[in-house]
Specification:
The structure is a homodimer of 248-residue chains. The first copy, chain A, is an alpha/beta fold and 248 residues long. Chain A is built from 9 helices and 13 strands. The radius of gyration of chain A is 22 Å and the shape is elongated.
Chain lengths: 248, 248
């Protein structure tokens, strides 16, 4: 919608199953990729369990610091789904069954199937807008700067697609990856630090991975000014070539 | 080492590359599994970028709340590796080159290779113990209740193996997973909520996944009293059988 120089966000993943190790969270990585592509800077992620006070504290800490907070998890029909109530408590607003949400649920199920547990999925904090999805019909919602989404990846992704066109976005980050191959980080660290010091507006990172018995390093240059990113990447490539030649 | 009723922990992942989506964090899921197995309750995870103030704030918030804080990332030789300095600042202690750490580095490299960048990896906050690893020799460290580990998964895992025998641990959590198959969450939610209400000391969660065009649900019962976990799991299995028969 609107364009600002920088729009920031946090992700809050809610669920005991992530903390216990049972479920490996893929949502936060998906959202990180997604926000980078549309020009929103993800600045923090948190994972908390299904404990109301923890969710309230995290929502309030994050919504005051960042332009948007995206939550995942805890909006289903079972007793452990407490996100909607916790978000209402964080905002200090009442929560009740939303007729719009009930209508959506009834698109998928017969009135006789809409038992008390399923009606829980229509509970929405007052003042929130619904966030629909194409998979389950049960909506998430958007209140203040907090966007509350499902934990099931396919549903979360559908909700994010619905929300994205309405988000304020900033300049997109351009990234260049430079393969350092088998050159050690310690060999290029000084030179890389000089390039980074000359370009304080860029994020320049060195990322080692270890496999097949050796280190394989990549350097990533990220920033919103494509020309500066390209110039820094070239300076780093020249540095690496020089170091490789020195070794020979 | 010692055994307490409950030992808690948080994970703090440090690195711009996770927030930008470039790297999908696998360390926090690995640590979650690992801690569950040895009897430590992981209560929170956070991801912050390579920004000193953010790391200091997160370390201080988490170390006051939990028995242990495990950090990953930011202890290499390049300019973006600022974790050791940030942790020293969080504890308000000086940081300098540690002779023990230098000795470890020299096991892997010649004195001539130990340039200024590599010497950075020997900077350790005063009062910290080293955490060695079998891969790179460059150590992490343990100060107060904060354990600072590498971001490269193989190195982090080796450090965790070194630290684990020295950690206080509590009773291990026993988990039982019950397949709900194609039964909808909304169908069993009321009955499951009753079992959960009768067992407040257990964590009972319902986890839907969506694939092949349909939902497939699992229920997980977790707790430290194996007999209670087994009894609750049996009650849930009986509930599901009853609901399946009602549908036929």
């Amino acid at each position: 919608m609107t364009q600002k120089a920088s729009v920031t966000a946090a992700v809050l993943v809610i669920g005991d199953e992530i903390l216990s190790g049972r479920t490996k969270d893929a949502n936060s990585g998906y959202i990180a990729d997604y926000l980078a592509k549309i020009g929103i800077d993800l600045r923090e992620m948190r994972v908390v369990g299904d404990i109301a006070a923890e969710i309230v504290d995290a929502v309030n800490a994050l919504r005051q610091r960042y332009d948007y907070v995206f939550t995942t998890g805890g909006i289903g029909p079972t007793h452990d789904d407490i996100t909607a109530d916790a978000v209402a408590a964080a905002f200090g607003v009442p929560i009740s069954e939303d007729p719009r949400a009930l209508r959506l649920l009834l698109e998928r199920m017969k009135p006789a199937e809409l038992n008390e547990a399923r009606r829980r999925m229509a509970r929405v904090p007052h003042g929130a807008e619904l966030v629909e999805n194409d998979i389950s019909k049960a909506p998430g919602f958007w209140i203040g700067n907090v966007i509350v989404m499902a934990g099931v990846p396919a549903i979360m992704q559908s909700m994010l697609d619905r929300v994205a066109p309405k988000l304020a976005t900033g300049a997109k980050v351009v990234a260049r990856t430079i393969e350092a191959g088998a050159l050690f980080e310690g060999t290029y660290a000084a030179g890389l630090g000089e390039v980074a010091a000359k370009n304080p507006e860029l994020s320049i990172g060195s990322y080692p991975s270890f496999h097949d018995g050796g280190f394989h390093n990549q350097i990533v240059v990220r920033g919103k000014d494509a020309a500066k990113v390209a110039a820094a990447a070239e300076a780093i490539e020249a540095l690496l070539s020089r170091l490789v030649n020195e070794r020979v």
